[in-house]
Amino acid sequence: MATSLNSLLKQNSQQKINIYNTKLNRNISKSFNKYCKIQEKKNDKYNQPNSCQSRLANMSINQKKVNKNQQLLQVPQQQYNLSLTEINGSFDSQYTKLFYPNTLYSSLGGKQNLMKIFSNFTHKIVLDPEINHYYLNTDMHKQEERQIQFWTVLFDGPDNYQGQSMKQVHKGMNISEKSYDLVLKYLCKSFQKYGATHEEIQKILEIAAVLKQDIVNQ
């Protein structure tokens, strides 16, 4: 009798627990649905449909929109940088023609073109094993800047050269006449590549002939 009573009490307790869990789940479900409806009303108010059931899908869509917007933002930036380059080049050209008219510096394209020429020239001499050993302990970036400044003065452009004389620079280097001729050949090729005429090359060779005595066998 006692066993039957205990069993009955356990069954009643389990039934009560089940009923409680069922009610609890219903309340949770109602609360969640109510929350979703409130959120949907808010989103409708701001014209941003974003139901609870479709949040993950919308997150993916929004990420695609962000990526697309980033791509759109990058295009004007590239165009802006390009236009700045064109403006700087145009300004340098106009400046050169205005303040250094009828000079070799002006006819060779001014600073912008000389930068291209000596960049190409530096690339050539560094790759040639017959002459690149002369530059083993040289900062070629500074070397290139000094060369642009030096030749700018020789071409009757602005005088910004702050380096040493050719004799001081090449002292102890023991540059042979053959190496000198090879370097001069590369220099003329670089000038030709960026638009120098035959007459302009001849003027460059005349200047180089004067410099030769301070460079070879020092």
UniProtKB/TrEMBL annotation:
Gene3D superfamilies (alphabetical): Globins
Name assigned to this protein: Globin-like protein
Keywords, ordered alphabetically: Heme, Iron, Metal-binding, Transport
One annotated GO molecular function: heme binding
Taxonomy, superkingdom: Eukaryota
One Pfam family, short name: Bac_globin
Origin species: Pseudocohnilembus persalinus
The UniProt record lists the keyword Iron: yes
Stored InterPro entries: Globin-like_sf, Globin/Proto, Hemoglobin_trunc
